């Protein structure tokens, strides 16, 4: 039908007859001559319909409106002098139309394409129109490019693409499952997978050796801005490997994929232990696009005559006094803003936010009176202060202080506007603790199949569960957790011990993942892997902050598809076939 | 951990120290020396543990059993003369073990790996063990190879890989949907997609131009041997195209994929119209690995003195008398077998099965008496009989005769053992009718978005709905429908007309696919595409006849996963959250 995509028509085609097809992006009438910017997937080309050249084509052109679909045949010519458009690939030429066919008409657009201020509901209800914008098209081209790059990288490394079931049994990811009633087995349900975790481990027991999948996963969670009921993850598992082997694969994968998407990233990424990340950045996903690490000054504050500081400094195991240097802060921020910073950290449990200003003649500020000259000097030295800087302090229990000072670090960097755009700073966070205790209940920080670091602890002789390190690692990009993984437990006796430590009974374990435990009894190799959030990766590559932008047909935060009106009610007959009844009282 | 995969160790490594890892495939003790065949994904390598060489390694070797996981380090040496094994890639060498570590133990296998006579239930319950067999591993390597080949082919052709939703609304494929209750919207349900049909058409309206996806699809059907509740299809759609464009893409895709899997197939495939396929092969998926086309002899039989034949021959529009030549049949089959053939066709509605034998002196058989010499000669000529052949006849109404004679053709070919193995014969079936009438109800043969062939008919002036041809095409491989597609309706007025002809009200149409109809109003380009059954393609490539062989974790014909025990009962709390109650009476 067409001979060229719009943007394939260039100066090389001058004097050729070409046929292009696409949408009317805009139409202008200049002194009786009609100019149409025709748009296809690649971009725009200008059509010219001059009644003096071709009356028929001009008459068709006169009747078209925005977003009509046209097929145009004509001769390519150079644009007149001064009429070139350097912003267009095709800006040096135009097509003098000899034949113009309206392939289809269009109603007027319900909103202006590309106007992001339009209510999101309207855009989602007409998602097929929003997808016409260059911004959307570019995102889905990027997503497709990343997808094939991931696959070719892993395929070249010998990984087998294996599909695991969507209709399956609950996986132990901890979130709520989506259920699917069975018609053949009334009263029974499948669950949609939260990840292929158990299946990929089974494939290792099967000797597949290297597995990958770009897998759909499902979580029926209360939705936050960056969550969707269904999402996509790059899922990888390999056998006879250690953490180093897995990290090497992940780094190559990320490097190759980002490179394919035109981004420059290194071939290996720095690492930080979980402990260091929490102490220095107050987060297990530190944003490394800027430095501003926190420094511990509890030893100096121990000498303070301020009773609160002194008392906090007495318990160095459980408390922290963190200093955060803000370069040039004394010049950047007003007193009012400083007060605002205190309000900010209070939201996250801070009792206050102390600070010193670094003046020409040393540290100033209300707190200086509690410190000796030597200690003030020690603070300057430890936090590497320069004239004009401000240094902030958070003091209190370790968890709270690290958390709010970590958040404050990010907040401050935003206020200072020092976070570089279009930069990709990766960091591995390693040596995660095996367990975390929340509301008195011990649970696995990753999942219960994560291998504890047996070189550093004896599972039969554990003092504090939280001291057990696991062989687990997260990859963090620009302060966002892109993914992570672990070496898994491949021996039944270790797995049983871990369940025991978590207070999971043999019975509960068998019921939840009996088939994995059974598989471990039949010659499981050592194995490990990782998963990367594909949607999130595309978000970061595309520089957008909404996951809905990178999903072709996304759901709202109320888990609805406004375009198709899913979910919706179904016939009673359908429910009857499934042996189900809706509890009306609860609707 | 390892330096080589088992099968990477060859004569080139003689005298090198290597480390391999894998499973004990077998273990033999020859005069105190232990030989272990170690297996990994690639295959086997022989380990030798001689107590005279290394007592420690020998002692470990002495304790291992089948399917234990080992890591072995040792020096490669040539096998002794006469001890080479030409069946193994590594058959010329062995590894003299210096260090042997048991990575994991194994219980005895619950069944002999690779024994296909073992009850399928036991194999499926232990699917992770069955997947260890060479046969399974080879299938999943093939599947992974085909998968990446498909993607690279389509990516190179400019198709964008776009993921469409799994949690969506009913699609109009006609089978039963799997439903997913919504927790956020009690009493409402998502449906799992039977195909991405509507979404891929929407993407064309969005101007994506070329889309593909290897998509999971779901149908809650009563399961036949070759069906699964979830299956995978290669899904393709393109804009501004005609049937020729689409067929070209499909042919290149199939050619590239089969080539990547080591199969020789042509770059274009022959075509047959639906009408011809039905008349000649009695099927819209003719097996072209052998010829044996049916020939119509109704004109000759019209002269017969047999009343039944003569009366059937009076209605040439609705009746058929089909001749099927069986080369050398007179020598191949006994009278008893011929009787068996009649019993076979009777199962499919035949009243009988006439035949002639071609002897040296002309046609013989009980029916000859009803025909003149000239007519007998005409039969010989029309059906191209040679001495020793048998020719069978089916007579009656068109649909019944074509159906049972088509089945008989396949049955006969199997009895004659003339279907060549490892041959791939493709054929396009084109010019499908738009509608079919079943039980008095008109329905779309493909789906209601298929474009009627407007060059051949006027929708406003239709005499017989079944005469309307659609621009739809199926690709058939070895008598199996591999997939198909169509050019879609892109204009609202045609779509409305088609619904009208099908007796679908505006209201019903709007409720079912209102969003697609709405999209057609906003500048839809002409478009079309196809879908190929990926599981089925792998079945044919792997030469297996069970779809369960090519799915890593398949379900039974009762839609159960015997490994994970899905589906299963769920907590009442979960149901309560979903505002559902199980109707106990119906279980």
Helix/strand layout:
2 copies of one chain form a homodimer.
Chain A: E1 17-30, E2 33-39, E3 44-49, H1 55-63, E4 69-78, E5 93-104, H2 120-125, H3 127-130, H4 134-156, E6 160-161, E7 179-181, E8 189-191, H5 197-205, E9 210-218, E10 230-239, H6 243-260, E11 271-273, H7 274-281, E12 295-296, H8 298-301, H9 307-312, E13 319-326, H10 329-332, H11 335-346, E14 354-359, E15 362-364, H12 373-382, E16 390-397, H13 398-416, E17 426-430, E18 435-438, E19 441-444, E20 472-477, E21 480-487, H14 492-502, H15 506-520, E22 527-533, H16 534-542, H17 572-577, E23 580-582
Parallel strand pairs in A: 3-5, 6-9, 11-17
Antiparallel strand pairs in A: 1-2, 1-4, 2-3, 4-5, 7-8, 9-10, 10-22, 12-13, 13-16, 14-15, 14-16, 17-20, 18-19, 20-21, 21-22
Helix pairs in contact in A: 4-6, 5-15, 7-13, 11-13, 14-15
Keywords:
nucleotide-binding (chains A, B); aa-tRNA-synth_II/BPL/LPL (chains A, B); homodimer; BirA Bifunctional Protein, domain 2; 587 residues; EC 6.1.1.23 (chains A, B); aminoacyl-trna synthetase (chains A, B); 3 domains; Gyrase A, domain 2; OB fold (Dihydrolipoamide Acetyltransferase, E2P); five-stranded mixed barrel; eight-stranded mixed beta sheet; alpha+beta
Task: Produce a short descriptive summary.
2 copies of one chain form a homodimer. The first copy, chain A, is an alpha+beta fold. Chain A has 3 domains: 11-104, OB fold (Dihydrolipoamide Acetyltransferase, E2P) (Beta Barrel); 137-272 and 427-550, Bira Bifunctional Protein, Domain 2 (BirA Bifunctional Protein, domain 2); 290-419, 2-Layer Sandwich (Gyrase A, domain 2), CATH 3.30.1360.30.
């Amino acid at each position: 039908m067409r001979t060229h995509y719009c943007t394939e028509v260039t100066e090389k085609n001058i004097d050729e007859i070409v046929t292009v097809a696409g949408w009317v992006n805009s139409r202008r009438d200049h002194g009786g001559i009609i100019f149409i910017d025709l748009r296809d997937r690649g971009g725009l080309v200008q059509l010219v319909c001059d009644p003096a050249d071709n009356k028929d084509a001009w008459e068709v052109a006169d009747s078209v409106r925005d977003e009509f679909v046209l097929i145009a045949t004509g001769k390519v010519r150079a644009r007149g002098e001064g009429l070139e458009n350097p912003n267009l690939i095709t800006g040096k030429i135009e097509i003098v139309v000899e034949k113009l066919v309206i392939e289809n008409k269009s109603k007027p657009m319900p909103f202006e394409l590309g106007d992001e201020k339009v209510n999101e509901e309207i855009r989602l209800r007409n998602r097929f129109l929003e997808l016409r914008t260059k911004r959307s098209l570019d995102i889905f081209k990027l997503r497709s490019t990343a997808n094939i790059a991931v696959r070719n990288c892993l395929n070249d490394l010998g990984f087998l693409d294996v599909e695991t079931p969507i209709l399956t049994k609950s996986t132990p990811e901890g979130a709520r499952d989506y259920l699917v009633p069975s018609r053949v087995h009334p009263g029974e349900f499948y669950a949609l997978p939260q990840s292929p975790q158990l299946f990929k481990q089974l494939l290792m027991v099967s000797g597949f050796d290297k597995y990958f999948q770009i897998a759909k996963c499902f979580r029926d969670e209360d939705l936050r801005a960056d969550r969707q009921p269904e999402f996509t993850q790059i899922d990888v598992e390999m056998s006879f490997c250690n953490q180093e082997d897995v990290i090497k694969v992940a780094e190559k994968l990320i490097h190759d994929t980002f490179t394919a998407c035109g981004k420059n990233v290194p071939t290996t990424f720095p690492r930080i232990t979980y402990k260091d990340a929490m102490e220095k950045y107050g987060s297990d996903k530190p944003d490394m696009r800027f430095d501003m690490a926190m420094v511990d000054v509890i030893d100096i504050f121990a000498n303070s005559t301020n009773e609160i500081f002194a008392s906090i400094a007495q318990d160095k195991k459980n408390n922290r006094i963190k200093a955060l240097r803000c370069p040039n802060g004394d010049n950047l921020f007003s007193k009012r803003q400083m007060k605002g910073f205190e309000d900010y950290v209070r939201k996250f449990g801070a009792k206050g936010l102390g600070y010193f200003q670094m003046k020409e003649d040393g540290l100033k500020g209300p707190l200086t009176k509690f410190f000796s000259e030597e200690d003030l000097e020690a603070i300057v030295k430890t936090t590497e202060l320069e004239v004009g800087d401000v240094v902030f302090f958070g003091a209190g229990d370790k968890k709270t202080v690290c958390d709010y000072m970590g958040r404050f670090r990010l907040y401050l960097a935003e206020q200072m506007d020092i976070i570089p755009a279009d930069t990709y700073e990766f960091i591995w966070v390693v040596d995660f603790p095996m367990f975390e205790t929340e509301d008195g209940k011990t649970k696995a920080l990753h999942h219960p199949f994560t291998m504890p670091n047996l070189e550093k602890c004896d599972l039969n002789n554990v003092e504090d569960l939280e001291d057990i390190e696991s062989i687990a690692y997260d990859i963090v990009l620009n302060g966002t957790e892109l993914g992570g993984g672990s070496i898994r437990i491949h021996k039944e006796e270790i797995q049983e011990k871990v369940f025991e430590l978590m207070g999971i009974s043999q019975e509960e374990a068998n019921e939840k993942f009996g088939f994995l435990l059974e598989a471990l009894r039949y010659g499981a190799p050592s194995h490990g892997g990782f998963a990367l959030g594909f949607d999130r990766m595309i978000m970061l590559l595309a520089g957008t902050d909404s996951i809905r932008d990178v999903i072709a047909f996304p759901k709202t935060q109320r888990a609805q598809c406004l375009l198709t009106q899913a979910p919706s009610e179904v016939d009673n007959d359908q429910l009857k076939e499934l042996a189900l009844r809706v509890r009306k009282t609860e609707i």
